[in-house]
Design brief:
Elements: H1 2-44, H2 56-75, H3 92-127, H4 138-162
């Protein structure tokens, strides 16, 4: 029953991570490409025309964190890509136990990161910190990072109970 509930919850969580990561990646590539072209126009017009997106470097740096956490959570679905010489030679049961132990470590790491990001969100909210260029409240960014780490923990917990030790690249 618990595993069924975990599977039912983790599916939409994975989809949300994939969607969030994809949207952020699309926007990040757009910002970088647009600013490269805008910089060419800026230089060609001797600084008369400035079409560059304000705070582009800041946007891209925070988006990269969102994308990395979203991709990590979404990548667990088919098992993480692994290069190992010992585990692949084990029988099925020990291989599954090693995989489940690995995912238990990912759950622990994700929960610790979620807790640390949540603490940062609370601290930056209390201090009223904002990003340098765009004045985005920092607690929103750290809060989103904390939610993404919780999503990673949920997905990894599902793998703790269901992983069979076969990696996607070995199938």
């Amino acid at each position: 029953m618990f595993v069924t509930l975990l599977r039912r919850i983790s599916g939409p969580v994975e989809a949300a991570c994939l969607l969030l990561g994809g949207l952020c990646l699309f926007y990040m590539v757009f910002v970088v490409a647009f600013n490269v072209l805008a910089r060419i126009v800026f230089d060609a017009t001797d600084t008369a025309v400035n079409l560059m997106i304000p705070g582009a470097i800041e946007q891209v740096s925070y988006l990269l964190g969102i994308i990395a956490l979203a991709a990590l959570a979404a990548s667990l679905k088919e098992g993480m890509i692994a290069v190992d010489f010992v585990v692949e030679r084990l029988p099925d049961l020990p291989r599954a136990l090693v995989a489940r132990f690995w995912f238990l470590g990912v759950v622990a790491l994700a929960l610790v990161l979620a807790w640390l990001f949540w603490e940062d969100a609370l601290a930056t909210h209390a201090r009223g910190e904002e990003t340098q260029d765009l004045r985005i409240p920092m607690f929103l960014i750290y809060g989103l990072y904390a939610l993404q780490c919780l999503a990673l923990a949920v997905i990894a917990l599902r793998e703790v109970f269901t992983a069979d030790g076969h990696h996607a690249e070995l199938l």
